[in-house]
TrEMBL record:
<keyword id="KW-0547">Nucleotide-binding</keyword>
<dbReference type="InterPro" id="IPR011545">
    <property type="entry name" value="DEAD/DEAH_box_helicase_dom"/>
</dbReference>
<feature type="compositionally biased region" description="Acidic residues">
    <location>
        <begin position="527"/>
        <end position="536"/>
    </location>
</feature>
<feature type="domain" description="Helicase C-terminal">
    <location>
        <begin position="352"/>
        <end position="516"/>
    </location>
</feature>
<dbReference type="GO" id="GO:0016787">
    <property type="term" value="F:hydrolase activity"/>
</dbReference>
<keyword id="KW-0347">Helicase</keyword>
<keyword id="KW-0067">ATP-binding</keyword>
<dbReference type="InterPro" id="IPR027417">
    <property type="entry name" value="P-loop_NTPase"/>
</dbReference>
<feature type="region of interest" description="Disordered">
    <location>
        <begin position="526"/>
        <end position="549"/>
    </location>
</feature>
<dbReference type="InterPro" id="IPR001650">
    <property type="entry name" value="Helicase_C-like"/>
</dbReference>
<dbReference type="InterPro" id="IPR014001">
    <property type="entry name" value="Helicase_ATP-bd"/>
</dbReference>
<feature type="domain" description="Helicase ATP-binding">
    <location>
        <begin position="155"/>
        <end position="339"/>
    </location>
</feature>
<dbReference type="InterPro" id="IPR014014">
    <property type="entry name" value="RNA_helicase_DEAD_Q_motif"/>
</dbReference>
<dbReference type="GO" id="GO:0005524">
    <property type="term" value="F:ATP binding"/>
</dbReference>
<protein>
    <recommendedName>
        <fullName>RNA helicase</fullName>
        <ecNumber>3.6.4.13</ecNumber>
    </recommendedName>
</protein>
<comment type="similarity">
    <text>Belongs to the DEAD box helicase family.</text>
</comment>
<dbReference type="Pfam" id="PF00270">
    <property type="entry name" value="DEAD"/>
</dbReference>
Amino acid sequence: MSNGNSHSPGGDTGLQDMNGLIEKLALGEIAMTKEEFVQKAKDAGWADTATVADDDATRASDETYGGAATVYSWRDEYGDVGPEVPELESQLYGGEFQMRSGAHLANLQLTVTVEGPTPIAPFRRFEDAGLHPAVLDNIKKCGYIHPTPIQAYTIPAVLQGKDVVAVAQTGSGKTSAYMIPIVSKLMGKGMKLRTRTTVAHPLVLIIVPTRELAIQIFDEARRLTYRSMLRPCVAYGGFPMGTQRDEMRKGCDVLIATPGRLKHLMEEPEILSMSKVKFTVIDEADELLNNDWADELDHILRGGDSNENPDHTYMMFSATFPRAQRELASEWMSEDDYVQIRVGRAGQTHRNIEQIIIHVDRDLKQQATFDLLYASPPARTIIFCNSIIAVDKLDDFLYNKGLPTTAIHSEHRQVEREDAMRAFKTGRRPILIATGVSARGWDIKDVSHVINYDLPQQQYGGITEYIHRIGRTGRIGHRGLATSFYNERDEEIAADLANTLKEMDQEVPDFLQQYLSDDGRIRFADDAGEADEVNGEDGGTAVNGEEED
Ligand SMILES: Nc1ncnc2c1ncn2[C@@H]1O[C@H](COP(=O)(O)OP(=O)(O)OP(=O)(O)O)[C@@H](O)[C@H]1O
């Protein structure tokens, strides 16, 4: 094993020191019993696996599903804004697991490019954005003091009624960039638009690729619609259908949904009608515009009568937007009232994530992970593997060595996925092992280390997937570390990886140097087509490749 540099999330323990240990472990020179491994984990400060309660025993009912979480309960006599409900308020905003911005927000201040028929004037303070007072109040309760760049441009664009494609770095506040103006616009009109029947008639449809992300965005919607008549609802695979239908019948003004479950619900006209939808948001749009989802998305976007609404606004958001998906996105946008907002280069990461690439042979990866977890004090860590089998094997390997792991992949039952996420968020099991594709958009407090046990293969997203995976750390002004294991099987991603490191002034290890161009220019296989603005305030020097748009 060799590595380009050394770092640890919480100390100065060099990764170079790991070389000898990993080799020893591989050769079986350290033969410890299970009890000794458990003791070693405890001594290092990791949560004791023996005291972690069995989640099956503590699980009570459907209420443990994130989709059944309490929302503000509206009564018509409230007028425009309802009264405060302290208990709900502390649940929504007071949680110790809610993210607060870190000290390095300035690293997200990159050059913003706006393309569209009319210019967009950004605002500097939420108070100046012309938002409904109740929304402003909810923003304060969330602890958002200054808008992030994507918010400063997207909020006015949506308030002006534009269709929007927005691309900005991971963890830069894209969710509230669309949620704030939509909720604010509807606050004044919600009453008039609302249809009181047992059939859900959402005004807003937010489509996301994964279940965990759906629940997370539902939580953000619960915060931003607090004290309003707008009732958020979430629909995702694995959420029991009975509870799902009950929740929808209670009213559903803002529907957050994964495509499969949404398609299913659209086949039940006594449950859901799309006829009132005014805003359709596609989050992680490049993923959803991908071929794998094409049928579902086409059905959803064309299937409802919402498309006939001349007032309908479409919005698409992501941290990455490869060329093919950008072309597909433009098909849904209004020709003369459409704006594209990019912060930095589309698909660019940011400087709050320190990236380290270590050369690790395939058969040494388990030991390398084990050792990496001890190379610094315990920290919330997400480990990505490329297959379900690899996730399960690594989970077993680490858990049997006394480390408090949990795992998420598509073969787990939904209740297990939600338990795993809860155990990770609360720190009961601070090591989460997952297949990469499930992790887009996750926003979890205090994730200080991401490990790419496997680098994403080209056919499963390559560098785009890498950007999303490492983006689970270093969010909203916090710093984080991303360590990736590289070997010869990863050559497909090598050039984009080397250029990504160089673009962010990270050390490019010797084994990746050959993939950098001799002229010192930074090139990506799928350039984002914006050579004009990449020399931003951040001092970035990305330059387009040959394949310009
Ligand atoms: N203006 C703000 N000030 C402080 N924190 C904010 C602000 N806006 C959003 N946040 C918080 O920043 C975190 C990241 O936001 P969000 O999940 O929307 O990022 P994102 O850009 O969608 O990332 P990704 O591309 O990974 O999905 C969230 O915890 C959110 O509550």
